[in-house]
């Protein structure tokens, strides 16, 4: 039913109506771009039952014209088109402020290699699908975006309607209170509107401690007390104020009584004993015709809004800290590369001086511990380079049993509960082991007098209704202790970096944040449950590996052999940090390689043009000058097809998807690296083996 408000002094013919259906429902459109009319027809038929208007365009230019005039829930775009292809069209759409939010799904029957996939996602696509596309899958994906668009527009529509209702309510209420003869009809209509809003309206005398003169009936539904309580007990409202807010609120209430419009926010204890956060706005209306002045105000429950704002602020804080720590760790890794490389060269020079060699080794080990700290920072920032593989989590847990028993001691009993038919998880084995060990150590510290530690693995299915996990199968690893547990305030900060309840020197506060970053970067989710005195449970949801991914060997099965020395191959070293570049140059020269160097991408291309032979490009990934390491390698290999590439970086965030690490000549090296790591990576990138030969670095 429409809500009708009659301003003072107007006849019924001048009623202002605010109808819930006053704003038209949003029209949902989906744009399909393909140069083949047959594909357009097929797409239209596939999406016919989506309850959305399907717009067809036969070129990128036509698609841009459509986007200029209309908004779309999603764009399905062919990659390979004459004239302006899908990548160029997507970039232009993304560069326009009003259209950059539109999800773009690329469809292609030709460009299926990793480079095009990377380019598609770089152009702003949310998905990259290969033709022929399964109609059911396509329709399901588009349905998600259509429903998201429809719900988003509905939220905007409801917000606009609510804003109109609120504005009209304030205006009408102020006008009606000006005239005594219209007061009764105004209050009746006001009550009708107020019952439909999550807001309390009231009037009261200017004296402190007097009862309300009027309060809307919905006060009982919102706060649990009947309206009569506020109309008869003058001190009731202030008696329920939070003690910490009472003095501040009293000052604001006094300001209201002095005139003007005042706003105050405070906590008020409802009938259920819980404090609600209320936003009160009021103004003093002067008395007329011998009537005393009167306070007229509104009380809005903003508890949920403030909680959402706190959650958003927490997420933004974590993201900011992640960016900061990731950047610091990246720069620190560059410096550590220089320190570790120089110390290793120095160690080879002091082999005949045991005292100096011992000091060099101490410095080297300290540098390696610093490297582990930066790795933890990158793990929290989700910028570490992961090497996901198919890992049997049940076997991983059992293989770590002996290590866990030594770590926990005899006072703690370890129980392992594995479910049958467990699918392998697609994770980085080393990071998974580190995460489990961190949780075990935390459990040990929570049970100083002993207890039981239970590690359970199971396979779970996430459906479309799970807001935190993408649909699919997951391995759930649960680590439960019977320790002291965590109160809510500590639990809320469990994953914050550098937050720890342990004594100084007994914890960095990075363990759980590192696990959180690793799980998130792996496409999973970590949940925690804890109560004081009842223990803690961590649930790690890790995605199952596809059947096409081979099960990884355990570390005991891997072959450990030294890298092959160089055989005169020419290596071009590219790094914008001169010291890092020099460490790499000297190490490679000691290994027997011929080395040339460059500071950035353009300079490296000039060196390649002037050198008769270059076998390997060893380049940093993140470099200034408008060309990163990946772009440099692509251009260099275009000009010199036989050139191999080796990448290095403090982190590979944003470009690791296009490195193509599965083929020879496209290896990746994480900074800081040691001499032997560089030697093995170079030999592997060049396509050499590692059998039986033991290289000896030349003494510097």
UniProtKB/TrEMBL annotation:
Residue ranges of domain Histidine kinase in the record: 327-546
Residues annotated as transmembrane: none
UniProt modified residues of type 4-aspartylphosphate: 78, 620
Domain PAC: residue ranges: 262-314
InterPro entries: CheY-like_superfamily, HATPase_C_sf, HATPase_dom, His_kinase_dom, HisK_dim/P_dom, HisK_dim/P_sf, PAC, PAS
Record-linked SUPFAM superfamilies: ATPase domain of HSP90 chaperone/DNA topoisomerase II/histidine kinase, CheY-like, Homodimeric domain of signal transducing histidine kinase, PYP-like sensor domain (PAS domain)
Ranges of residues in domain Response regulatory: 29-146, 570-686
GO MF assignments: ATP binding; phosphorelay sensor kinase activity
Keywords noted in UniProt: ATP-binding, Kinase, Nucleotide-binding, Phosphoprotein, Transferase, Two-component regulatory system
Catalytic activity: ATP + protein L-histidine = ADP + protein N-phospho-L-histidine
UniProt-listed Enzyme Commission number(s): 2.7.13.3
Top class in the EC scheme: transferase
Protein name: histidine kinase
